[in-house]
Design brief:
Elements: H1 2-28, E1 29-38, E2 49-52, E3 58-60, E4 66-72, E5 76-80, E6 87-90, E7 99-106, H2 124-132, H3 140-147, H4 150-159, H5 164-180, H6 193-205, H7 207-216
Parallel strand pairs: 1-7
Antiparallel strand pairs: 1-4, 2-3, 2-5, 5-6
């Protein structure tokens, strides 16, 4: 009977101590919130991975760098974001309230990637084979004719985009035209006799016909 009473008292004391421990842990819980921003420009760092060290708990900051989750006092918080150096923060154990706010500065980290060499051949052996079997004419005249081919020049002229100078002149012409007709109705090309004369002359010269045959080819 005494053994049963002793066992009952031991179990009761164990349960009481466990309850006290749980209550103590609940008192140590805090709402840990804050934002993650860059250290140089103070811009938000979105999608920062925030974890409690040695625990499978944490969260991720949102688009504006805000985060909030439950933690304990003295927990070590790890901050990791792509392109930034990892940072750790220890929650103070002297907090008197059940919440704590933090503005975490993230320092940019330069990532150095290995150089990538891209070849138009699948393997190095294919490149060696193509290089050895490359047929380069020895005749200077043949190379000159190939480089001065009229069709190749015409294709380059038609497909070559405007450079900075051509874009500037085009922009200035449009601005001049707008200023010239400022405050009045711009003329309609369909009523312009000079445009009609140019169209009829191009029609007689067969410019549209040659363009049609060229598109079919």
């Amino acid at each position: 009977m005494k053994k049963q009473i002793l066992l009952f008292v031991s179990v009761f004391i164990f349960l009481i101590s466990g309850s006290i421990r749980v209550l103590g842990q609940k008192e140590e819980l805090i709402q840990f919130s804050g934002i993650t921003i860059t250290a140089d420009s103070l811009n938000p760092v979105p999608f920062t991975k925030i974890l409690i060290k040695d625990k499978n708990k944490g969260t991720t900051s949102d688009m504006v760098g805000y985060f909030s989750f439950i933690a304990h006092k003295s927990d070590t918080i790890l901050f990791n974001a792509l392109g930034y150096k990892p940072v750790s923060f220890i929650i103070p154990d002297s907090i008197t309230k059940n919440r704590y706010s933090l503005i975490q500065l993230m320092t940019a980290d330069t990532l150095t990637l290995a150089a990538a060499i891209i070849f138009p051949w699948p393997t190095l052996d294919d490149f060696k084979r193509a290089f050895v079997n490359l047929d380069i004419p020895d005749d200077d005249m043949t190379r000159a004719r190939k480089n001065l081919d009229i069709a190749a020049f015409q294709m380059q002229v038609e497909n070559h985009p405007m450079d900075a100078g051509a874009n500037y002149h085009n922009y200035m012409e449009n601005q001049t035209s707008k200023l010239y007709y400022f405050g009045q109705q711009q003329p309609i090309s369909i009523l312009n006799p000079f445009a009609w004369a140019k169209f009829i002359q191009a029609w007689k010269n067969g410019d549209f016909k040659r363009k049609k045959y060229k598109d079919q080819e």
